[in-house]
Amino acid sequence: MSDLESRALAKTWFYRYTLPSGAQTPTYDGGALDLIHDTRTRMLDALLSTEFGDQRNALSAVDLACHQGWFSVHLAQSGFARVLGVDARSEHIDDSRLIRDTLALSNLDLVQSDVHALDTAALGHHDLVLCFGLIYHLENPVGALRVARALCKRVCVVETQVVPGQTGWVDYGSYRFVRPLKGSFGIIDETGETHGPEASTTGICLVPSLEALIWIMQRIGFKRVEVLPVPEDGYEQLVHHKRVMVAGWVE
Ligand SMILES: C[S@@+](CC[C@H](N)C(=O)[O-])C[C@H]1O[C@@H](n2cnc3c(N)ncnc32)[C@H](O)[C@@H]1O
């Protein structure tokens, strides 16, 4: 077993990685969260195989809020020519680099940055952009979605917690100017948890309704927006529509 692998096995991870020796990284809560990652990976793979098939060696991808690199590593292993993982927390980028080096993935780059601080012009356009588990931890989710759109030349996949939506009509300044609601946001307080590895960095979190997410993705430039199907034996939050995975296509 290599020194890199020994270092990886000495930590507890958000994700269960299989290392070159066949050993697996220990995960939080004795593996209670493994199913959410497995379900999301299966849902993503179904889209990738329809969208890109097996020919991925000319494709690039960006994984926004990559945490300890699970989806970045998965894309790199699945044949993408270049993958960039981004996260606000430097400790996650260090862990992602440890896993990348342990698995010898030369097609994976990692950078520490707040999603809102990314220089999208410098990063260019990518075939696939992932935005998983991020926007419901943000006080500016629309801004983050605009970053995702700016980086995307083909398809962007957003995975998020959603809140029940309000519908109806609003007297918008006067009864003579009545507007329909396009969706809604719920406010969640994470101000006491900003130290947490999965949490918001600012503590003020705006969680969209599904209607809000779809409408915003259409308004910021995705021509087609679809909710992706969930396997029946998947993680309960996805099965019961508390979380969703939504794909937006640029063309
Ligand atoms: C719930 S975890 C999701 C991780 C991973 N994308 C997944 O779905 O498994 C949220 C991640 O968002 C990162 N994050 C929070 N606020 C961020 C921001 N403003 N910019 C970039 N990353 C952020 C956190 O550090 C954490 O890794």
Can you describe this structure?
The protein has 251 residues and is an alpha/beta fold. It has one domain (3-249): 3-Layer(aba) Sandwich (Rossmann fold). Helix content is 30%, strand content 24%. The chain contains eight helices and eleven strands. It has helices at 3-9, 34-52, 70-77, 90-102, 120-123, 141-151, 210-219, 236-239; strands spanning 60-64, 82-87, 108-112, 126-132, 152-161, 169-171, 178-180, 185-189, 204-208, 224-227, 243-249. The strands form three sheets. Strands 3-2-1-4-5-11-10 form a seven-stranded mixed beta sheet, with helices on both faces. The chain has a two-stranded antiparallel ribbon with strand order 6-7. Strands 8-9 form a two-stranded antiparallel sheet. Helix 1 crosses helix 4 (90-102). The longest helix has 19 residues, at 34-52. The chain is globular and about 70 Å long. The N and C termini lie far apart (47 Å). The structure holds S-adenosylmethionine (SAM). S-adenosylmethionine is lined by residues 65-67, 70, 87-89, 92, 114-115, 132-134, 137-138, 198, 200-201.
Q: What is the annotated CATH architecture?
A: 3-Layer(aba) Sandwich
What would the CATH topology be? Rossmann fold
CATH C-level class is: Alpha Beta
Any idea what the shape is? globular
Terminal CA distance: 47 Å
Strand order of the largest sheet: 3-2-1-4-5-11-10
Secondary structure tally: strands: 11
- Helix amount: 25-40%
Bound molecules: S-adenosylmethionine
Series of H and E elements: HHEHEHEHEHEEEEEHEHE
Superfamily at the CATH H level?
A: Vaccinia Virus protein VP39
Average residue pLDDT:
97
Structural class: alpha/beta
Radius of gyration: 19 Å
Largest sheet composition = 7 strands, mixed
Number of domains: 1
Q: Count every helix, treating DSSP H or I runs of 4 or more residues as helices.
A: 8
Model regions low in confidence, pLDDT < 50 over at least 5 residues: none
